[in-house]
Amino acid sequence: MTTVSIIGNGNMAKAIGGVVAAGGSTVQYLGRDGGTVDGSIVVLAVPYPEVDAVLATYGAQLAGKAVVDITNPVDFATFDGLTVPSDSSAAAVIAAALPESTVLKAFNTTFAATLATGKVGAETTTVLIAGDDDAAKAELGGLVRAGGLNAVDAGSLRRARELEALGFLQISLAAAERVSWTGGFAVVA
Amino acid sequence: MTTVSIIGNGNMAKAIGGVVAAGGSTVQYLGRDGGTVDGSIVVLAVPYPEVDAVLATYGAQLAGKAVVDITNPVDFATFDGLTVPSDSSAAAVIAAALPESTVLKAFNTTFAATLATGKVGAETTTVLIAGDDDAAKAELGGLVRAGGLNAVDAGSLRRARELEALGFLQISLAAAERVSWTGGFAVVA
Hints:
Number of strands of chain A: 10
Strand content of chain A: 15-25%
Oligomer: homodimer
Largest interface: A-B, 36 and 36 residues
CATH superfamily of chain A: NAD(P)-binding Rossmann-like Domain
Structural class of chain A: alpha/beta
Number of helices of chain A: 6
Helix content of chain A: 25-40%
Largest sheet of chain A: 7 strands, mixed
Mean pLDDT of chain A: 98
Radius of gyration of chain A: 15 Å
Low-confidence stretches of chain A: none
Order of helices and strands of chain A: EHEEHEHEHEEEHEHE
CATH class of chain A: Alpha Beta
CATH architecture of chain A: 3-Layer(aba) Sandwich
C-alpha cells in the first residue's frame, strides 16, 4: 500500500488527495509549517511562490522520495509569462534544489474541478506526468489510474517546460472566460 | 467574400483549405516557388525550415495582409526542444521579418486529421489563434467557425510561445504513440 503525502490544503491538494484515496491508497495531508512525512510520494500542492518555504521546512525529509511538482509559476503581476527562466521550468528549479529526490511534474494541466469529476467535457481527465525516472512515473500513473483518471507519460523532466506552458495557457484562457474552470484541455488518446 | 491564399501543398495545407472552403470562402493554393497572392489572409502552410525561402519569394506581396503561421519549429534532430529562442516563437520570428504584415499564430495545435474530421474525440476541433490584431483574429476565427470548427482567441502574439510548446508536446506524445495523430489535445469550453 502506497502512502502519498500531500503538502498543502487548497483545492488542488484536496482534489489530488481525492483521486489517490479513490484508488485505495493512503493520503496524508501536511501543513506548510511542518510534520513527519510518511509517504514515499510527496505532492507539493502549494502555489509556486510558497515552494521555497516548503522546501526549507521539509527538504531533508524529501531525500529518497518521489516529489511531485504541480505548480504553474505564472507571473500574476503581468499575466504575460512565467516567473521561471524561459528555457527551464519550476520542476527543473525544484529538482535542482532537491538533488536527492526524484522530481516529477504532474497535475499542473488539470484544473481541480476536472480532477474531482474525472471529466473534461466528455473525455476522462488525463494527468500528464513528466520526469526522468520511469519507475516513479509508472507508480504515480498507476495511482492516478486506480483513482479513475487517465495518466500519460509526457516524457523527461525537460517536458515540464511544455507542461507549464500548457498550464499557463489554460489558466489564461479560463481567466479570460474563453474556457471554463471545469473545462480546458482534454487529452484524447 | 474573403479569399484565403495557402502557400504549401502538404496535409496541413489541404486540411486548412478544406475548412476554409467548407465555410464558403475562396481558397487559393500557391506553391513554394512563387505566384500572385490573391488573398487578404495568407497561410504559411510549410514546415518551419522552409519559411525563410517562402518569405524570400513572397515577402513583398505579404505587406498589408494577415499572415498565418501554423508551424511547429521542433528540433527533429534531438526531439527535445524547439529551434527558436525559448523566450520567443516561430511566430515572433516571422513577425519580425514581416513588419508590414499582421502575423497570427493558428492551426499549430490541431493535427491535420482533426481539422478534416472536425473532431478530437467527442469534442469539436478547436483552432487556437494568437495575435496582436483583434480584427484579424476575429476574421480568421469567423472563417474557422463557418467551416464547422471552434475557434478560440488565445491572446496576444506572445502566447505563440505557449501554443508552440503545446504543439511540440502534442507531436512528441503522438510520435511516442501515447496519443494518436487523430487525437491529441481537445479544448473544452
